[in-house]
Amino acid sequence: MPETPLSDPPPVGAEPAYGPTPRRAGWRPLRALWEWMKSMATALLIFFIIRAFLVEAFKIPSGSMEGTLLVGDFLLVNKLVYGAEVPFTGTRLPAVHPPARGDVIVFRWPQDPTKDFVKRVVGLPGDTVGMVDGVLQRNGEAVREGYSSHTEPAVDPVAEEFRWQRRYLARRLRDAEPYRPSRNNWGPLVVPPSHLFVLGDNRDNSLDSRYWGFVPDSMVKGRPMLVYFSYSPDSVAPLPFLTNIRWGRLGTRIR
Predict the structure, then answer these.
(1) In the predicted model, is pLDDT for residue 68 greater than 90?
(2) pTM for the whole thing?
(3) What CATH number does residue 244 fall under?
(4) Which of 39, 62, 64, 79 is catalytic?
C-alpha cells in the first residue's frame, strides 16, 4: 500500500488554514463591549467633573429677570468663580473672587434647596439696603440700575411675607412703630455676615429677598456666563424649541 505523502508544516506564526479557534472568536464581542464600557465610563467621569467643578447648564423658568434673561433661555453657569462645592462633602474649593454688587448669580433657594434661582446681587455683608418708591437705596444712596424694570410702578402691595424684615432693620428704625413694608418701600435692612441680598431685574414680578430673606453665601452655585440656547415657549406651534429659536440671543453674554 503506497504511503500518503506528508504536507509541509505551516510557516512559524502563520494562522492555520481553518482560521482562529472558536474560543478566540467568542471573546471578540466581549472585548468590544468592554472597550465600549470603558469609553462610556471615562466620558461620564469627565462630564461629572465638569458639571461639579467647572460649568453647569441652567434653564430660565420664569420672568423674574426679564430684560436681562428671558423664559426659555439656557445658560452656562461658571461654578469655579465663587468656589465650586465638592459633592457630598459640604466643602468648597477656593473662590477666584467672591460675589460682587451687580453680579447675576445662580443659587439654591433657601426656602427649598432642591430649587435653583437666578437673581442679581444688590447687597453684600454689612450693606444697608432698602427701597423708596421702587428706587433701590444702598448705604444711604440711590442706586442707578439700567438693568431693572417696573411693569406696575403705580401698584405697591403690602404682603405678610415682608414681616421678617423687622429684625434686620437699621438700628435707628428697629424700635420704631409702625413698620409696614411693601414691595416698593421697605428697609433699610442690614445684610448679615456671610449673606447676600438679591433682587430680580423684573422688580414687579420677582420672588426675591424682599419676600423670603437673605441668601447664605454657601448656597451660591455660580455665575451665568452666556446664553447658549434660547427659544420662545409661548407658542402653539409644534416643537417650539426647533421652530421658535431666538437666534439673536445665542452667545449673549450675561451682565
Answers:
(1) yes
(2) 0.78
(3) 2.10.109.10
(4) 64
